[in-house]
Design goal:
Blueprint lengths: L3 E5 L5 H9 L4 E3 L3 H5 L5 E3 L11 E5 L3 H10 L4 E5 L5 H10 L3 E5 L2 H9 L7 E4 L4 H13 L7 E21 L7 E6 L4 E6 L14 E6 L3 E3 L5 E3 L8 E6 L4 E23 L2 E8 L5 E3 L5 E3 L8 E6 L3 E3 L2 E3 L7
Parallel strand pairs: 1-2, 1-7, 2-3, 4-5, 5-6, 6-7
Antiparallel strand pairs: 8-11, 8-15, 8-19, 9-10, 9-12, 9-14, 10-19, 12-13, 14-15, 15-16, 17-18, 20-21
Helix pairs in contact: 1-6, 5-6
Length: 329
């Protein structure tokens, strides 16, 4: 899941707000949300904002174990912004271990790097309490680079078989993806294959590095918010999760989705008894990612090949991960 990047501008600074918006901040905290809205569309944290302090957002100064417990308790209601007069890693480690809704208040790039790296997974996000445009830009870069990781494992291909015609989905994003990047898509909600973006040169069509020819309409795709969505339901404005060959992830905005009838292939693979499968278009330009981290066309796949996938425990209910027994075939 992407990290939240918030700016504290309750001491209003128009130039800092403009820089924050231009750098892709997720939210601005202000006393008057209308000041923010005059500059652009961005989530506001204010008494008259999208998120309201004391209702959706809570602030806790960490002083002792009691205040740590208070922060964890309030995180069950919404995000909690935590701060301390003597910032150390230990309180953050305790909080991150117990909650995925901790936002660390930081003053500079160094503090942001520390907070986003705690216990490897880091806090859910940061609130920057600094209106210096240069600091805003440097911290924005840190947030972008401190991406969440997904576990990628090698699955052994068991079969690749034509399954006739069907509706497949091309997801066109607003991002130019690089070699090794793509989307996590699966026939079931328990396992996903890394479907490579159309970044490579080929004799048939020009590269479309913003596009992932993701699979058939019924398949699940991982979204930036940690949920899944049926490919058929993804639409312009949604945020899909982009993963690379090393498991690094970031969010990308969908600009368009194309659903067209095409010949399809069923790819089935296995890893230590765990089966993974996906229906994809039967075309040379559709690629998965091999164990060697190189893209491989589905038309070249054969039994015994090793491809990268992401296994999950449990199942999904309305896109949310749940810990219960769900049988999917």
């Amino acid at each position: 899941m992407a990290k939240e990047f918030w700016i504290d501008l309750r001491d209003w600074d128009k130039d800092a707000a403009t820089t924050a918006i231009e750098q892709g901040a997720d939210a601005i905290m202000a006393e008057d949300a209308s000041l923010v809205r005059q500059l652009g569309r961005i989530k506001t944290i204010a008494p008259d904002g999208d998120l309201k302090p004391g209702e959706d957002i809570f602030e806790v100064e960490i002083r002792d174990q009691e205040s740590e417990a208070e922060a964890v308790s309030k995180s069950k209601q919404g995000f909690v912004i935590v701060s301390t007069t003597d910032w150390t890693v230990i309180p953050l480690e305790n909080l991150v271990a117990q909650s995925d809704r901790i936002i660390a208040a930081v003053n500079n790039q160094e503090e942001a790097e520390m907070a986003l790296g705690v216990l490897e997974k880091g806090v859910a996000g940061i609130l920057l309490k600094n209106n210096n445009p240069a600091v805003i830009m440097s911290v924005a870069k840190v947030v972008l680079e401190k991406t969440a990781l997904v576990d990628l494992e090698a699955f052994t291909v068991k079969s690749v078989s034509p399954v006739g015609m069907g509706d497949r989905v091309c997801v066109d994003t607003c991002t130019i993806m690089k070699d090794g990047e793509g989307m996590l898509v699966g026939n079931t909600s328990s396992s996903f294959l890394l479907v490579h973006a159309e970044t490579l040169e080929n004799p048939y069509v020009a590269p479309r590095p913003f596009r992932v020819n993701a699979g058939a309409v019924h398949a699940y795709a991982m979204m930036e918010n940690g949920k899944t969505s049926y490919l058929a339901e993804i639409k312009a404005g949604d945020r899909v999760l982009v993963a690379d060959k090393d498991g690094k992830t970031y969010g990308a905005t969908v600009g368009r989705v194309k659903i067209e009838k095409r010949p399809l292939l069923l790819v089935e693979a296995e890893n230590e008894g765990k089966v993974i499968s996906l229906v994809l278009q039967n075309a040379e330009t559709i690629r998965l990612v091999g164990e060697d981290k190189k893209p491989v066309s589905v038309v070249d796949l054969k039994p015994g090949d090793r491809i990268l996938g992401h296994p999950e425990s449990g199942g999904r209910h309305f896109g949310h991960a749940v810990s219960e027994s769900i049988l999917e075939k």
